[in-house]
Design a protein that fits this description.
By secondary structure, the chain is of the alpha+beta class. The protein is built from 7 helices and 8 strands; from the N terminus they run βαββααββαββαααβ. It has an 8-stranded antiparallel barrel.
């Protein structure tokens, strides 16, 4: 943990903190190490995250677990950390917040807290929030996209889909927050995605109901699809992947 300073990052901070930037870190944790990994992160590293929030280095920290297995369980991520930041300049001091955990927890030794030896960091992303509907979801569907035009993707989601989801949430549909993010880093043709949206829910069944197939005539999106260019030109092949993640723990300035 000490060497992987960027370890504690969708709520994706996909919760109430109005962060402009998010640091996503994807981890692979074997089944035999999951209980200890979760214990150490929630009991120890969440307190260090809280200290970083109190000192102004970050706004929020959260840990998410992927629902089910997608791909090789030994090489694909099954846990996601999300660190929330107000400004891109906050990344200049991000590492310093994790450099001395024993200062925050003087009665603990690093060997009893670290999680590098029981997990593997697979990749990290720095994201910028382009639009968001507030929520406090327990489950999120993360829609990873490689649009033909990031600008068109952002504009349609901001001007068409966000108002649609806001209206749904006001009417009592079981959506619990929504967000749109673009990739700041890394850049290039070989990245797995260049933007994402996330849909928040309180229950797993609500998330599954949201993504399951329905004929367009029966879909609640029927009225808006006619105005969308997503399937025709922006993301003609659809999303790259849409896994569901469950919230394990969320920490911000209001957390006791």
């Amino acid at each position: 943990m000490k060497k992987v300073i960027l370890c504690v990052i969708l709520a994706l901070g996909m919760q109430q903190a109005q962060a402009q930037y998010k640091f996503l870190q994807y981890r692979n944790v074997s089944e035999k190490n999951e209980a200890e990994f979760v214990k150490r992160e929630t009991e120890y590293w969440s307190k260090i995250a809280k200290a970083n929030i109190k000192s102004g280095k970050m706004q929020a920290w959260s840990l998410w677990k992927k629902v089910g297995v997608i791909g090789d369980p030994d090489t694909r991520p099954n846990y996601l950390f999300v660190n929330d930041f107000k400004s891109v300049t906050d990344f200049d001091t991000m590492e310093s917040g994790w450099a001395d955990p024993e200062k925050v927890l003087p009665n603990m030794k690093l060997a009893a807290m670290e999680t590098n030896s029981i997990s593997k960091v697979l990749f990290t992303y720095i994201m910028k929030t382009e639009a968001q509907i507030e929520g406090a979801p327990k489950f999120v569907v993360i829609n990873y996209a490689k649009p033909t035009s990031v600008q068109d993707f952002v504009e349609e989601n901001t001007n068409l889909w966000k108002p649609f989801f806001e209206n749904e949430q006001k009417k009592g549909f079981k959506l619990n927050g929504w967000g749109l993010q673009t990739v700041v880093y890394p850049q290039g043709s070989n990245v797995d995605f260049s933007a994402l949206t996330w849909d928040g829910f309180t229950k797993l069944s609500e998330a599954l109901d949201h993504v399951q197939y329905r004929p367009l005539s029966q879909s609640r999106f029927a009225s808006i699809v006619k105005d969308s260019k997503m399937s025709s030109t922006i993301t003609p092949n659809g999303f790259e992947l849409s896994p569901v993640y469950q919230l394990v723990m969320y920490v911000d300035a209001t957390t006791k």
